[in-house]
Amino acid sequence: MRWVSAEGEFSYAANGEPERMLGISVDITQHKWAEDALSNVNRKLIEAQEMERTRIARELHDDLCQRLALLAVELELVETSPTDSVSEVQSHIAELRKRVVEISRDIQALSHELHSSKLEYL
Prior knowledge:
Elements: E1 4-12, E2 18-27, H1 29-80, H2 86-114
Antiparallel strand pairs: 1-2
Helix pairs in contact: 1-2
């Protein structure tokens, strides 16, 4: 199958009847194939972006948010448990501090993944 674009106009006789047509037709098959290829590439790019957004959302929800929620619960336990000795509280706080640092590193790694590689070339 070929795609053709045609354009023309009629010349009319004195009585108003069409006498001849002058025009041009161009094979635009290659152009149509290129449009289809570009459309497919755009579709695949959008699908890849959506998959990446889904992965990031899942990682944020399933991992980081859960870890932060657990951290908040454990901080509340430290705050509300007056029976622990000072050294136990300090030890618990040190452990929670380590978790905060781990979560911070994971957030930094995730934000680095979001960094466009195109920006590296500027």
